[in-house]
Write a structure and sequence with these properties.
Elements lengths: L1 H24 L17 H5 L1 E6 L4 E2 L2 E4 L3 E7 L5 E5 L14 E3 L4 E6 L3 E7 L2 E10 L1
């Protein structure tokens, strides 16, 4: 009797599975495009970006002066893995949001500076390469 019950239960599961699979396959499928979310762009966003390039020798320009709310973008053109980290080396504790981490050659990192001040940074993997962002 136990075997008959087990076989009956197995048959019921197979029937339910077949109904679910076949029931959905009879309707024609349509490829519905998934909308892509994009961030709104306005002129102010593109005007308040300052770019710093990391070469194999240094950050260029070495010092930038920007207004509060400006986005600073670091682009790695050093040919190697690099970082952007806040002073002091090696602890990076002076301004924690500036610890942007590693970025490969031809990649970029960004940070919006929302408080006035003088922010020192360096490439942790080549600490002789340093820079300063002055926010007014």
């Amino acid at each position: 009797m136990g075997n008959k019950l087990a076989l009956g239960f197995l048959a019921l599961i197979l029937i339910i599975g077949a109904v679910l699979i076949l029931g959905n396959s009879s309707a024609p499928k349509q490829n519905t495009p998934i909308p892509v979310q994009t961030a709104p762009t306005n002129a102010k966003d593109t005007q308040n970006v300052t770019t710093i390039t990391l070469t194999n020798a240094s950050f260029l320009p070495k010092t930038v002066t920007v207004k509060t709310g400006t986005k600073v973008k670091w682009t790695n053109k050093s040919g190697e893995l690099a970082t952007v980290d806040s002073a002091d080396h090696p602890a990076h504790r002076v301004y924690l949001p500036l610890n942007l981490g590693q970025f490969a050659n031809n990649e970029s990192l960004e940070l919006v500076f929302d408080k006035p001040g003088k922010y020192l940074y360096h490439n942790h993997l080549g600490p002789e390469r340093t820079g300063t962002v002055v926010v007014e």
